[in-house]
Amino acid sequence: MTVTEHRTAAVAEIRSVIGDWAEALRRKDAARVLANGTQDCVVFSLAPPLKASDADAGGLDAWFSTWKGQLGFILEDLDIAVSGDVAFATALTHLSGEKQDGEKAALWYRLTLGLRRTDGGWKIAHQHESVPFYMDGSFKAAIDLDPRSEVDWQAPSRPPMPGVIAYLNLEDADAAASFYGRAFGAKEEDRKYAQDGSRLIHCHLTINGGALMLNDPFPEFGHPWKPPEGFVLHLVVDDADVWWKRAVAAGAEVTMPLEIAFWGDYYGQLRDPFGVTWGIVAPVTGGD
Predict the structure, then answer these.
(1) Closest by Cα among 173, 182, 201, 203 to 249
(2) Which of 129, 187, 217, 267 has the most beta carbons within 10 angstroms of its beta carbon?
(3) Where does the secretion signal sit in this chain (predicted)?
(4) Mean pLDDT by 10 residues, the chain (288 residues)
């Protein structure tokens, strides 16, 4: 058998080992997971500590017990390199499932496996998992990344936006964005969908020169929908009557008539179909 044939055979065997290891994780079978690793397997996992060993079935079973049912465990872009009795495999990995408390989790992370050829065949000797973190000073783990995203992460950052920006969690963010276009002349700048292809994880609108952000509820990630209350979005405009009539014609409900307020501005409030209260305000002119 030639060197190339030996390498091809080794890659096929390693791919089978990794496939069986992944299936064992999906089924939460600790003994089967460990059977694919060496006794001294070193693990750099996403969870603390910095360094651990996978040679203890008890630790794996304890982690498995925090999940309901089987796990979702998908490897994408699996690449295997072999040299003699050592091999390295890299992949993008998607882990998903439902925790015992009902919380649903789903994230992509990076996986590197180091393997050794032993008397019992190829075994996983090292496992390294990682996620990038945001370099904005927050050091927040970037668990919202998706390998299918078309975002250019090397592109220059956008300039900072001035002022305070409202971010609304609405029952139907797509419908809200459409309504705000009709009612307030909103211009859509950007939108991103979740993996289900229907819910918006982000929608950026510009209204009256300012930014407004929207997203759908994601109760599985701790962001359920709640009725909006305790705030008003103010639009300070040059012609309150024009803005008012357009919003009412689009379907906004009048909750405070447009009139000269006690502080001297022309002011009124509307409630949109999504429960958000808007204030329309303009300076009083000679014609008011």
Answers:
(1) 182
(2) 267
(3) none
(4) 86 96 94 93 87 75 91 93 96 92 89 96 96 81 79 66 90 95 94 85 94 93 89 95 96 96 94 97 73
184 and 86, same domain (yes or no): no
- Count of domains observed in the chain: 2
- Provide the residue range defining the domain that includes 99: 3-130
